[in-house]
Specification:
Elements lengths: L10 H22 L3 H5 L10 H21 L3 H14 L1 H9 L10 H8 L2 H11 L2 H7 L4
Length: about 140
């Protein structure tokens, strides 16, 4: 089995993947509409692209990833890209903590720091729910 071959799907993974996809669709839509200002707090001050452009672009990516998680037949590929996206946006979460920026009721350093520990959970969720983790483990067995 290669990393691009999707393992058999299971009901728990399907439910989990669709839930993550719907959450990303909601987050992406909120980036593009009613929560744009809140998401700007997560854009690092050092980032070379304007905060609003970054929020809009990341929202569009989240909509695409969310849709992919819900409807794509290439689950492993979508899972790998989704996990990579969660890793790529992690510096924004760190920046929000280091720069003491409020957003989404993350209005204390303790809350902002606690949030950092959930990003690896999102990475694992994307990898497990799409079968990417299983494909990675089985890549050399076939």
């Amino acid at each position: 089995m290669s990393l691009t071959t999707d393992p058999a799907d299971t009901a728990p993974r399907l439910v989990s993947r669709v839930a993550l996809g719907l959450a990303l669709l909601f987050a992406g839509i909120s980036h593009l509409t009613f929560a744009r200002q809140e998401f700007r707090a997560q854009v690092p001050s050092w980032f070379p692209v304007g905060a609003d452009v970054t929020v809009l672009a990341s929202g569009a990516v989240e909509v695409g990833l969310g849709a992919g998680l819900v409807i794509s037949r290439r689950r492993v590929s979508v899972g790998l890209v989704t996990a990579a996206f969660f890793v790529a946006i992690f510096p924004g979460n760190i920046s929000q903590w280091l720069e003491h920026k409020d957003g989404f009721r993350l209005d204390t350093d303790a809350r902002r720091l606690t949030r950092l520990f959930f990003q690896p959970v999102l990475v694992a969720w994307a990898l497990w729910s799409t079968g990417a983790l299983e494909a990675w483990r089985n890549r050399s067995a076939h």
